[in-house]
């Protein structure tokens, strides 16, 4: 049910959430708590925290109407370091707790902070059902391809062959691609960014927060203790030019610099592949060039782009894969509650609710 507090509310993805009074401003310091930040030196979590603290003032929301819910893991310490409401919950269940909050409190901006182990292992079902339901929340999925808090076991995103404490001869598991998984679960906003690219990270967060429905942002970040250098190839400035595929809505999907640029085209088997730019014209491939469109109702093209990933990181898509509008679970539930009436046509009462819960099929056991 909605709560009318008689004060201004925000628009877009935070529609219904009380906004700051006109003229009142916030800064990064307003969102930094008094808790000592405790992560290992060099951890990518520091960069993400700084970006989020720097971005939150842009929302223009009251701090008491923002809540961060986390599960278990290094990333899940996040709520301690933000001066908002928050909950350090239980392993993998943050999306479920956030679903309850988003559904019962339309005046809250709900965020979930989770890791690749927390979200994709014990929390796998909770994540995909939040995406399927399209609950109004923003999920930040930190992916360092390792279990960090429990000291270095391989995770659902670890690469095959990775030697860890739980895979001393190398992991034989096939890893999840979180973006592909989210698209397969019909996520309405799916994106990927990286901890070390502050500008890109902030721009993606901005779009995610503006989206009404479930937004999921995979954030590549480094664990210097147990999986150092997992994304070294795409963090190197020189390597980035050839390996990163920056997705821009309405533009052809390309990678590389002038003279060495590659263009993404559809092949005859329903998949996509990169070809040198010169071959597009000479090979008659112009009509097969893939133009990125985040608003496509069918997620097939976005899914194909997400499959460009490989262990060699030759082509790594970055940006927003999909952003579509669909009714949200929490809005629909609140609408049902507000439209509930008793047999006399008036608003539902506690007595009506009790009768509904008991139902017609009851027995008295003596």
Describe this structure in words.
The longest helix has 13 residues, at 198-210. The protein has helices spanning 45-55, 94-104, 116-122, 124-133, 178-184, 198-210, 232-235, 237-243, 277-282, 300-306, 329-339, 350-358; strands at residues 66-70, 85-88, 109-115, 137-143, 189-194, 214-220, 244-246, 254-255, 262-266, 272-276, 316-323. The chain is built from twelve helices and eleven strands. Helix 2 (94-104) runs parallel beside helix 11 (329-339) and helix 5 packs antiparallel against helix 10 (300-306). With 366 residues, it is an alpha/beta fold. It has a domain at 12-230 and 327-331: Thiamin diphosphate (ThDP)-binding fold, Pyr/PP domains (Rossmann fold, 3-Layer(aba) Sandwich), CATH 3.40.50. It is globular, with a radius of gyration of 23 Å. Strand 8 and strand 9 (262-266) form a beta hairpin.
Topology:
Layout (H helix, E strand, L loop, with lengths): L44 H11 L10 E5 L14 E4 L5 H11 L4 E7 H7 L1 H10 L3 E7 L34 H7 L4 E6 L3 H13 L3 E7 L11 H4 L1 H7 E3 L7 E2 L6 E5 L5 E5 H6 L17 H7 L9 E8 L5 H11 L10 H9 L8
Helix pairs in contact: 1-6, 2-11, 3-4, 5-10
């Amino acid at each position: 049910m909605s709560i009318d507090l008689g004060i201004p509310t925000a628009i877009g993805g935070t529609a219904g959430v009380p906004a700051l009074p006109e003229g009142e401003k916030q800064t990064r310091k307003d969102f930094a708590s008094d808790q000592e930040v405790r992560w290992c030196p060099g951890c990518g979590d520091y960069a993400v925290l700084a970006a989020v603290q720097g971005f939150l003032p842009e929302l223009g929301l009251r701090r008491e109407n923002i809540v961060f819910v986390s599960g278990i893991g290094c990333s899940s310490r996040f709520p301690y370091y933000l001066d908002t409401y928050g909950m350090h919950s239980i392993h993998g269940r943050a999306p479920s707790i956030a679903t309850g909050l988003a559904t019962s409190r339309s005046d809250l901006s709900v965020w979930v902070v989770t890791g690749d182990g927390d979200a994709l292992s014990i929390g796998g079902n909770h994540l995909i059902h939040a995406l399927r339901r399209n609950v109004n929340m923003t999920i930040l999925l930190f992916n360092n391809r390792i279990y960090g808090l429990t000291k270095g076991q391989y995770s659902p995103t670890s690469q095959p062959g990775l030697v860890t404490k739980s895979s001393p001869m190398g992991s034989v598991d096939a890893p999840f691609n979180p973006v592909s998984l989210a698209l397969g679960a019909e996520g309405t906003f799916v994106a990927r960014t990286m901890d070390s690219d502050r500008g890109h990270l902030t721009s993606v967060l901005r779009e995610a927060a503006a989206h009404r429905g479930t937004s999921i942002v995979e954030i590549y970040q480094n664990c210097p203790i147990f999986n150092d250098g997992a994304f070294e190839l795409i963090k190197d400035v020189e390597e980035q030019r050839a390996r990163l595929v920056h997705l821009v809505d309405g533009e052809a999907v390309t990678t590389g610099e002038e003279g060495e640029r590659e263009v993404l085209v559809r092949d005859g088997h329903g998949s996509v592949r990169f070809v040198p730019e010169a071959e597009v014209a000479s090979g008659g491939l112009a009509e097969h060039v893939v133009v990125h469109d985040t608003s496509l109702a069918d997620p097939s093209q976005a899914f194909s782009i997400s499959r460009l990933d490989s262990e060699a990181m030759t082509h790594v898509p970055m940006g927003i894969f999909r952003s579509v509008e669909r009714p949200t679970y929490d809005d629909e539930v609140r609408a049902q509650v507000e439209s509930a009436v008793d047999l006399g046509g008036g608003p539902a009462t506690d007595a009506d609710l009790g009768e509904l819960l008991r139902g017609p099929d009851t027995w008295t056991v003596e």
